[in-house]
Amino acid sequence: MTSTSNYGKLFRGKQHCMRGDRITILPDSVLIHILSFLPTKYAVRTCILSTRWKHIWVSVPNLHFFFKDWHCSVFSDFIDRVLFFHELPRIQRFSLECAGVDLNRLNTWVSVAVRRGVQELCINVQYTSDCIILPPTLFTCTTLVVFKLRSVVQMKIPGLVRFPNLRVLHVSLQFPFGDMIQKLFCSCPVLEDFSIGGYIDNSEALAFNISTVALKKLEIDFNEVQGFEFSDNEFVINAPILEHVTLRDNYFALYRLKNLSSLFRADIDVGVEVGCTEIDGWKERANQVYELLKGISNVEYLTLGARTMWALDYADDNNLPLLLPNITHLKLRVGNSSSWKRLTYLLSCMPNLENLVLEVSAKKEFELHNHLNLAAEPNWIDPVPEQTPACLLLHLKEIGLTGFTSQIYHLNLIKYLLENAKVLIKMAISTCNLAVEEDVEFLRHLVTCRRGALACTIELSRK
Fold it and tell me: What are the DSSP calls for 275-332, one per residue?
């Protein structure tokens, strides 16, 4: 009996050990795959676990170096040692994120990655002592599939640029040189995902021609550093299989959209900041937003940011009408006390809309409106349209409202939507910073609102 009891204890102990250390029974290939998702400094630390773990990290194909402080020789020395001991002839992904770095060492690391056939190269260097000049061999790398570069300094590129297999290119720089972005783009014949952004100086007009048969995703996100200046920068976009476009700026760049028959999703936030309507030429630039929307009229998912909504408020009515028949999902981001004027008009342009999201900024804008002699509490619609938009009567099933308060124009908007959305299934409301008495008033208003769809449920949450 005692012998059997001891054997049972030993067996249960062995089972417990196996349950507690299952990772050691995994093959090296699986361990390497797991370590490839960790920052390299943590992958290297596993070498102290046991003799078996001592050399596993040197076979990890992904190298990710992250350091948030300014120039640090310890960090740079660590990267040098990792590249020296790393045994793989191929590097799948090389990623560097740091506040500052010595450019000579950066070039050495990139050169090593290129020699080892790197497929993904991601560099995020916030500051350097000079303009970034990466090694020329990088710009003719035949193995590179993904290249992402982000910095707040300028970059120069060599005369010869050719990325025959590059499919993802993301570049965000401060004051990119006029022909640099165009040159990078034209060197990528199979590019599918292109993102450009940063800060620019409008003293020189720039022209970008983004014409390609392979591009599927495009993001343009530039900000003018001088403030409140319009731009003569022009972006010509001609991409027949483009599916997703994001356009953001704070200076009203010119966008010429052509041949976007495959476009499925668009995120638009172009225009100057709220309150800048006194700038010469404002209305002419605001009118261009309608032309931009006409160029993406076949999308199904559309997001309009606060700048664009503000521009639509002040655009001429003679640009109407507009028809966006394919849109099923619409998200509008607006200011706390503006940008409601075109809401019902937009709804009438989207007869098949099924999902509506309204996000209200929590930023206080009342002082700005008072300074510009604008209404501190603008009515969300004036007057209420005689004809209810077709989407409210036939298709709109879900509404999400974020950042709403007990202000009367917010309550009136909720009332209008609840009364006129005849097939609404759910309205989710997230209120913002309500005092106790405001919360009570908000709930009282919801209870008294008549609902056009009796089966509609209301979900209320608080930020």
Answer: T-TTSTTHHHHHHHHHHHHHHTTT-SEEEE-HHHHHHHHHS-GGG-----TT--EEEE
